[in-house]
């Protein structure tokens, strides 16, 4: 097996899809639904990851590539292909994910396996329309009945004014710190949000 460490591909994995992306009292969450089960696996993510996933899900085009787009462009240049993503472990309230890549030197029988944050794995899978798999054991560990989220979940589109202002604040901070690549990414997200779901300001 090539990649990062020994990987157990024999464990049971289930196809999952994004049931919804929501804001809850605990923060932004992607709810992944394994098959037709009436449960969801909540994956909490930050604002940047939230908007990157939303942009990919809605098919919004940006003038410059975000980090996830850049990674996929690099993969294409080196002849690597994303086959699937897997969320396979939960330790200390942290999910672990991996990317399964194939290419000339990495056939399907011996793929390249890269460690990944779940939010990045989701963002990449959505962009490439690749399968998102979840280990069956995680349903027992972290599965929550869908009805629970129906009560408090709110769709994050359009973004609330405070979240929009937080992106502006992060942009100004990145510029002040001369982190221009991060600033450019934040700027593109803000522009996309303004064009596709303008923020609702009071007053």
Task: Summarize the helices and strands and which ones pair or pack.
Layout: E1 13-24, E2 27-34, E3 39-45, H1 47-57, H2 67-77, E4 80-91, E5 94-103, E6 112-116, H3 118-128, E7 132-135, H4 137-142, E8 144-145, H5 146-152, H6 161-176, H7 180-196
Parallel strand pairs: 4-7
Antiparallel strand pairs: 1-2, 1-7, 2-3, 3-8, 4-5, 5-6
Helix pairs in contact: 1-3, 1-7, 6-7
Summarize the structure.
This protein has helices spanning 47-57, 67-77, 118-128, 137-142, 146-152, 161-176, 180-196; strands at 13-24, 27-34, 39-45, 80-91, 94-103, 112-116, 132-135, 144-145. It has 203 residues and is an alpha+beta fold. The longest helix has 17 residues, at 180-196.
How does this model look, in words?
- The protein has two domains: 13-152, Bifunctional nuclease domain (Roll), CATH 3.10.690; 161-195.
- 39% of the residues lie in helices and 30% in strands.
- The chain contains seven helices and eight strands; from the N terminus they run E-E-E-H-H-E-E-E-H-E-H-E-H-H-H.
- It has an eight-stranded mixed β-sheet, sandwiched between helices.
- A hairpin with an 8-residue loop joins strand 5 and strand 6 (112-116).
- Helix 1 runs parallel beside helix 3, helix 1 (47-57) crosses helix 7 and helix 6 runs antiparallel to helix 7.
